[in-house]
Design a protein that fits this description.
homodimer, alpha/beta, Methyltransferase, Cobalt-precorrin-4 Transmethylase, Domain 2, five-stranded parallel beta sheet, five-stranded mixed beta sheet, 22% strand
C-alpha cells in the first residue's frame, strides 16, 4: 500500500483504571473515531482497557479486540501485533479514523510501543497522534498522597525485576524510586529493604483506581503472598522533603 | 481551630497546558467545589493555571488567586503559602469545598507541595484528595512520540541544575532521561553532550500544549538563547528500543 492514508491514527492513554481519569481529549477522540483497537489478555472476557471505557457507552461495533498473552517473552505476541498493524493501515487507507487504546500512558511500558514498531515497518511515514494518559506512577502517588518530587529532587522509575540489586545505590541518589511489576520479586525486595541501610518509607499498590485496588503500607505483611501484575512499590527517602 | 472540617479539600492537577488534557475527574471536581485556589506568578495578569481553566467557563467568584514569586529561593513565598493555608482551613471549617489547582501533577514539582506543608502544620489530620494530572514528562514524550520506557527500561527524571554533571553516568544506566528546568544551564548541557561519548537522541520542548509551545530537535541551534522556565529536554539512548 502506498500514498498517504486518508484516516487519522491515534494512540490514546486511558489512565490507570478509574474511568474518571480519562482526559477530555481521550474521551473526545474515542467518541469521534470509527474504530477503537482494544488490546487485552486473551484469558479475560472483558479487557482491562475495555472496563475503563465501559462508562462512556460507546457502540460495541466500534471496538476491535486484540487478544494478547501477558508474558515477558518478547516474541510471543509478534504475530498478533503484526496482524493488528496491517488491519490498522488498511483501515486508514480506507478512510477510517482509528485509535489504539491503552491503559496508563501509551509511551510508558505500553502495548502501543510494540504495535508502533509493527506499524512503522509497514508504513514508516505514518503520522501518529499520541494522547498522553495518567501513568500508574502519578496515580499511585496521588492515591497515597506521597510526593513524587519536591524542588530539586530526582526520580527513578525501575522495573523491579531488573532493579532490586541496584536499590541501595538508587536510593542514595534518587528521592523517590518507583518499582514497577514487583509481583515477581516481592520477597527479595523485602529482604533487600531489611538488610540494606535505607532510611525510606515504602508503600505497595495494586490495581490502582479499579474495584480490585489494594494499598498496603506495611510491606512485610505481604511476604509470601501471590501478587498481581499491576503492582508497584513507591520508596521515598525519609527527610527528603524540606 | 479544632474538630474535623466540614468541607472537602482537593489538590487538582490540570495537566501540562492544553485544556483538553484535564481529566474528567478534575473537571467534575472543579465544577463542584465552592472555591478554587489558583496559584500564579505575581507578574502575570492571567496565571498559567487560569489559562488552562478558561475554556471551562467557571464563575469568576469561585476563584481565589494566590500570587507567588517564581524563584528558586525556598523561603520567599512562605508567607503567601501560610496565609493561603489559613484561608483554606477556615473555609473548610465553614463548610466550603475547596480545590487547589496546579498545572501538571500536584505531587510532581508543584506549588501544592509547598502548600501541603503549611496545611499540615495547621491541620495535621486534614484529609486531602489528590487528583493526578498529566505531567510534563508524559506530555513531552507524547508531543514528539518518543518512548518513555519500553519493556524493562529504566527512566530518570532530573532537574537539570543539579544533574548535568551526572549525565554520562545517568545515560549509562537509564534508557530515557528527562532534564527539567533546563533554561538555566542549557549551554552547559550542550557542552556536556558534545564532549561526553553519549549515543543518544535529544529533543527540547517548552510550554507544551500552550500557544507558546516550541519543539526543537536540533539542540545546538538553541545555543545562547534565553529559554523559558517551562523547558525540558528528553534524552533517549539510541538502540534502546528493541
Amino acid at each position: 500500500m502506498t500514498g498517504k492514508p486518508l484516516g487519522r491514527f491515534y494512540a490514546v492513554g486511558l489512565g490507570p483504571g478509574d474511568p474518571e481519569l480519562l482526559t477530555r481529549k481521550a474521551e473526545r477522540i474515542l467518541r469521534e473515531v470509527d474504530w477503537i483497537f482494544l488490546p487485552g489478555e486473551s484469558a479475560r472476557q472483558v479487557s482491562f482497557a475495555g472496563a475503563i471505557l465501559a462508562p462512556l457507552g460507546l457502540p460495541a461495533d466500534k471496538f476491535r479486540s486484540v487478544s494478547l498473552c501477558m508474558t515477558r517473552e518478547p516474541g510471543i505476541n509478534s504475530d498478533r501485533y503484526r496482524s493488528a498493524a496491517r488491519e490498522i493501515i488498511e483501515g486508514l487507507h480506507a478512510g477510517k479514523s482509528i485509535a489504539w487504546a491503552t491503559e496508563g500512558d501509551p509511551l510508558f511500558y505500553s502495548t502501543f510501543l510494540q504495535l508502533r514498531q509493527r506499524l512503522l515497518e509497514v508504513a514508516p511515514d505514518l503520522e501518529i497522534e499520541v494522547v498522553p494518559g495518567i501513568s500508574s506512577v502519578n496515580a499511585a502517588a496521588a492515591r497515597v498522597g506521597m510526593p513524587v518530587a519536591v524542588r530539586d529532587e530526582k526520580v527513578a522509575i525501575v522495573p523491579a525485576t531488573y532493579g532490586i540489586d541496584c536499590l541501595p545505590k538508587l536510593l542514595a541518589e534518587f528521592a523517590t524510586v518507583f518499582l514497577l511489576k514487583v509481583h515477581l520479586v516481592f520477597d527479595q525486595l523485602l529482604d533487600m529493604l531489611g538488610t540494606a541501610d535505607m532510611a525510606c518509607e515504602g508503600c505497595y499498590l495494586e490495581n490502582i483506581g479499579t474495584d480490585r485496588e489494594r494499598v498496603v503500607h506495611d510491606l512485610e505483611s505481604l511476604r509470601g503472598q501471590k501478587l498481581p501484575y499491576f503492582s508497584l512499590v513507591i520508596l521515598r527517602k525519609l527527610a527528603g522533603e524540606t
